[in-house]
Records
---
Amino acid sequence: MNSRQRRGVILLLLSVLCALAAFAGVLSVIGDVNAKVGREVVAYEVKNGIAPYAPLKAADFDEVRIPQRWLPPNAVTDLAALREKTTLVPLKKGSLLQSDMLVDRPTLQPGEQEMAIMIDAATGVAGKITPGARVNIIATFQGAKETDPDRSVIIVANARVIGVGQLTPVEKTSGDRKGPDEAVPITFALDTKDTQRVAYAESFAEHVRLALVAPGGEGRQPAPNERTYTLDGDK
């Protein structure tokens, strides 16, 4: 082997040693990153925007893998958590699904019926009524005769809200009775008698409005003299 060949072999060996050193360095960096980051776990992101109160399905979410140490403690890692759940707030595309975004979907109790009516969005809802809330349903009526006073009546006290729909344009009704430009469908859980009261008010009242009951006041029923109001009563 001449000197030129020896130099070639030496350079080849040096190149191999440099490659091995570089490979070892890469493995060391990867090992260090893995040690700092930890193992990855499955989580879920919102695939597209989800409206409040919509039923939640597995198809609404994309699976992602996130290092466990970076995962929030309340992140949902099993879509079985969606069963019988809904959300009270809009979920934006790409949001990480977390348990505090979810609430139990309201359900009917024995003897209750589900009934939905359209409520003026400006005067009857104002964005503060959500499923699970308790409200008084108040209807206003014109006097049957010209000499009869107009009156407002609490037709149902402490009605339980189980659903709030989307803002919907509403056509004005003809005649003297005027309707709102926009309304929201509100769904209640009511017994048979209260269902009839609400249906009557929706058909014949001038307006139907909701009054949100403060927490802790769910069990209080208005006294008989508080259920009906006329201006004459203030004189």
Note: The chain has a mean pLDDT of 79.
---
Amino acid sequence: MSVRTAGAAHRGDLANLLTSDARLLDFARRAALVLVPLTLAIAFGLLGTGPTPGRNWFGELLGYDFSQVWLAGREALEGRAAQAYDLEAHLAAQATAFGPAAERFAWHYPPVFLLPAALLGLLPYAAAFPVWMLFSLCLFAVALRSATGRVEGVLIACAHPLVLCNLTYGQNGLLTASLLTLGALHLDRRPILAGLLLACVAYKPQLAALAPALLLLTGRWRALAACLAGLAGLCALSLLAFGPAPWQAFLDTLDQTNRIVLREAWSGLDINASAFGAVRLLGGSPVAAWTFQVAAAALAIGAAWRIWASDAPPALRTAALLAASPLVSPYVPLYDLAPLVPATALLAVEAHRRGGLTAAERGLLITSPIAAATLRSVAGATGLSLGLALALATLGLIAARSVPRRRPVPAVSARPSPV
């Protein structure tokens, strides 16, 4: 085959992906059969184990981000739960436990997250990290199975770069995506269960806030009551387990959290995929960033509210919550874009049910993994936030799909009635 013929064939294959749902699905299946084993090998093998305890095969700490979760859990088990909120003490404890290179994370989570952290702290670190990864991945698979109804839907979703991102760093984006997905999907048939699942996202209040707001605005009272009761139960359980000191410390450090996360951006401007982060990345002032953030949040809330208040099916309602939640928060590190994965899967499922993807929806499914894989490098090189663009595009297409399609009115015949 000549180079010209091969090039024409490749262009033809690309055109088929852009125009044929069947070809796109077939390509996604074949890509997932390669990427999922590769993802598991990298996450659980290359980066999840190593010749030195607590270190991967590159000599780096297993699960950098997870390290402080385990450490906070150990401190809580030892009766020092409030120490995680003491920045200097927490950084010093990281350096002591994992070496000077690990002295990099401040603890911003509400005390409810100390409950799972303490459970993980019962295990040695080298065991706790893979257990956390496996639990997150299994719950994500359950959520995607519920969302798509097909094993291949789980396989394709697990090939997404955001899954690998969360696994290798030991982050909780997959847990957030799973709880939001399962909670919203069960809303109609099991509202109590749905409310309790949504309450469990309380460890990420900036991403959890939209769900109860939508329950309130749309009058889903049983689910809202269960959500509030679940939240109260988690808070009470954390008080019972660790006392009031962590809660007082958490409230006392809110201004410090705002300084570290938003004003000084300790993690880097290129990691924050929110509207606030997009403006700051371009060199905009905090005032401009907050103005844009408020506008984006209002847009997201309005779109999600409209979809939830309509006759949209559960798949689109769930997808709207998943896509809108990251847009509401001023701080969205890349791994917290994980809810966009089940959101796009649900959009594809609903499109298939209605006869097929639109060109824009097909384009989103193609570009989403590419954009996710290059988010940070593009942000650092160009100052542009692909993460924000991806979230806005996903919510926009979900909203468009949720608009009722009017059936064409048949033309009235000019002939007189035979009756």
Note: The two ends are 69 Å apart (CA to CA).
---
Amino acid sequence: MTRHAYARDDYVAALGTAVAVPSWSTAVVDRDIADGGHDAVGSYPMAIISGDISEGLEDLRAHGLVSLVIVPDPLAHDIEAFRPHFDQVTAFKTHLLIDGAFEPSAHHRERIRRGHRRCRIEQGRLARWLPDWNILYAGLVESRGVTGMAAFKPGYFDVLAKYDDITAFAAFVGDEMAGMTLWFANDGIVYNHLTACNELGYKNGAAFALYDAAITHFGDQGVINLGGGPGAFGAEDSGLFQFKQGFANSRTAAHVCGAVLDREAYDRLAADKSSAFFPAYRG
């Protein structure tokens, strides 16, 4: 079985300073703490862990990290296995799924037909359209005010472009690119990784045609995880969530898991800070 994209060493290194976790066959991203020390966060957008959970936490304690935050893939992992090992396990986002037959809503069926009438969809490797994708995603970051890890370091997409298991679907209106979406499958799960459209794409329903093409392509390769919206768990009023919901027929919860690795340092950093956020010193 091909190693999961989110667990690959070069993938995590493209997100930030990677700290190897041998017991988990993956790595996490090291972060500086303003008041001193380092903590870590799992791979974006979800962590894929192989091996014993407690052994991996010991690896990270030995590395001198104060705390760890991860979001385990809810379809690849049973969240109950994480509860005994983490100090905080909280519902984070609702993920929308296609499990079984693909039956989009009536509204979406009409928009899909419109999108296909107006857009030409091509399929291939990201490397084929990498400069165009970089422009599309930069526009998304600017227009939506994307911050944090999802703003991505320079070179992140260069790494994705090397992977032959990531499929790009590109939408064109005439000869002009209007949008693109990136998908891949691993061990019976299909991942909708990223999607971006420009104004031409929004006007011509590119996203509807792109999702339909990707879902049709990957429909026999497992449960499709479309991800969620920008809000927290239970937030269903965003345009992105409503867009994905029109394709979906099921849902699951992704959880954020926080572990204190150095209790003395954690308590010192979190002193006088009351927050439900984990770690509290970043709240």
Note: The first strand starts at residue 17 and ends at 21.
---
Amino acid sequence: MTNRWDGFDEVVAVADAGTFVAAAKRLGTSTSHVSRAVARLEQSLGAQFFHRTTRAVSLTDTGRTLVDQFRRLIAERDEAIAMLDLQGEPQGQLRITCPTALGERFIAPIVRSYVQEYPKLSVDLDLTNRVVELVSEGFDLAIRTGTLPDSRLIRTQIALRGIVTCAAPAYLAENGTPQSVDDITQHECIIATSDVWRFRNGNEPESLRPRGRLRCNSGAAVFEAALAGMGLCQLPEFYVNRAVAEGQLVEVLQQHRPDDDPIWAVYPQRRHLLPKVQRLIDTLRRELPAALVQGCVS
């Protein structure tokens, strides 16, 4: 009986590797097996997937159309098989999206160790501050912070991050130190990605819209501007705690510091049982809180 999957893996491997020889090495089989499997599938479907020359292999128009479909079907097949063995080794491709600064400093090192632990796993880590649509863009997992809108996605809290309002000593010496949240309106503020600064007044949350001449979507750039004495800033503590500990910045309104922001792992429901997703979430929940603390004080 003919295997309905015969040739799918081989076509994708040739498309990705660029040659039949490289595809065979990737699949751990012989070049002749790959060549025969591709030829059988081409004959079965009545279509040619590759232009073949003595020096190179390239996809035909039909091949370009079908290889993406084959890749999706293979991924879904592998996911279905993986769901049958929840204790199985993470394998296949894992696509993750994460905010840039959090990803560069903390998520990427954890993911790098995770990939090294599981040799059958490959990871695509996309660092962006854009809110990615997980299902339509084909991502398995997102790392997100703060309050999340209701959705059909599943979320698991993996850590917390503190929020600090601070300024350089020279700025405070010249402009005074705010004693209340309302005093912020009298100060020059360096504004990051959020237009609203959050505080706590007793047991109640409080917020205001700061005013300032400098706005930047890079937390690192806002931090540098605060060090230069350009005004107050409100940033996640991993940016500023070392500078506060060394006296380069001074935390203000500490009694009004807002509640810590949750950090979430967010994922589509159909993927939540996959070992490659579940084990990474477990790893992040175990390692990220300590990494954030170490990153703040180092």
Note: The chain has ten helices and 14 strands.
